[in-house]
Amino acid sequence: MDLNHIMDEISSQLQHIYSKMEFTAGGVFLYLFAFLMLILPLIIFGIESLTGKVAAPTTASSHIPKPPPTKIQEIRIYPIKSCRGFKVQKTKLLKTGLDLDRNWMFADASTLKFLTIRQISDMTLIDTKITDDDSLEVSISTKPNIKISIPAHPSEIWLTLNTELVKDCEIWGQKVDGYLYSTDLTAPFSEFFGKEVRLVYKGPTPRPLKGNADPRVLGRIESTKFADLMPIQVSNQKSIEELNYRLKTSGEAPISIERFRPNIVVEGEEPWYEDVWKTVRLQPSDWTAENGKGDITMDVAARCARCQVPNVDPDTAVKNKKQPWNKLMEYRRVDEGITFKPCFGMLCVPREEGEVRVGDTFEITEVTGDHRYIPGM
C-alpha cells in the first residue's frame, strides 16, 4: 500500500461520512473532525518519509512470551486478483508468493489500471480452478455459459504467440509490465463488467516490495506479483472465531475467513497472538533438527490493515453496509502507523522457497512489540 492507496481509503471513508451527515452546525463540525482524524496519520507519514524516519521506536521484546507452535489449517490461492480462489492441500511457496497466487488481474481496457473488489463487489462471482491438464479455468457463478481456459503456467513461447507484453499496466499507482490476453478471449467478461476489460498476466520485470518490506527496512530486495503489498498473508483461526463471537453477541451473522482472503490459515492457540509475530518457520511433519528438511522461514513484515472488502459476501457479492468493518473498528485499530483502519492477519515475506502443506508445523521463532505500518516509500 502506498500514498495513493491511503488517499483512496480516506476518500472512501469521507464519502461514507458525508452521505450520512446532516447539514447542521453539529453535522459540519463532526465532518471536519472526522476529516482531521483521517488525514492526520497521512501528514505524520509524510513528515516521517521526508525526514527519513521509516521505522517505529523500538520496544523491548524480551518480556513478550513466544507463542507455542501451531499447525497450518488451510492454504488458499487466488489466481486472479479480487476474484474467487480455492483451497489446496499443498503447493509451492515461492519468494513472490504461493504458486499461481495473484498472477493475473483484470484491468480497465482504456487505462490498464487494475480492477478490484473494493469498487466492483461482483468480482467475487468470478470463479477460478486448476484442471487436471494444468489449465486455469475462469468462469462466472451466475452465468454458467461464460467460461475460458488458459495455461496455468504459460511458457514464454505461448505468451509470445497469444499475448502482448506491455509496460504500462497500473496497480496502486505503480506502473508494471504485463501480458495482455486478446479482447476476443475476454469479451464475455467485458459484458459482465459492463465495460471493456483486459486480462493481464504479470510480466517478467520484478515488482519490488515497498513500505514495511522496503530494502531499507527488510534488509534485502524482494518482489511480488499482483498482491496489494506482500507475497503472503497469514490469518489465525482463533481470531476469526473471536470476531464471530463478538458479531453473534451483537446480533450479527458470523462470517467465513475467506472474506479476508488469506493465503495461509493457522489453527492458532489464542486470538490475536499473531500481532507479535516477527519471524516464523514452516516445517513439514517429518522435519527434525538434524535434517532441517524443507523448512521455510518468513519475515512477518506488517499487520494487514483492512479496507471494507471483508464486508462483501463471497457467495453473493452483496456488501454489508456495516459488518464486519464496524465491529473491527471498535477494537482492532491496533497499529499506531495506520490508526484509521482495523487490522486482521499478518503480511509475510519468505526467505526461502519450498513446498508447504496443510498440517505442517507453523513455529513462531521471534516476537516483537514493534510492528508499525509504514506507507510505500
UniProtKB/TrEMBL annotation:
Residue stretches making up the MOSC domain: 207-365
Protein keywords: Membrane, Transmembrane, Transmembrane helix
MF terms (GO), sorted A to Z: catalytic activity; molybdenum ion binding; pyridoxal phosphate binding
Pfam families: MOSC, MOSC_N
Segments crossing the lipid bilayer: 28-47
InterPro entries: MoCF_Sase_C, MOCOS_middle, Pyrv_Knase-like_insert_dom_sf
Name of this chain's protein: MOSC domain-containing protein
Species for this entry: Venturia inaequalis
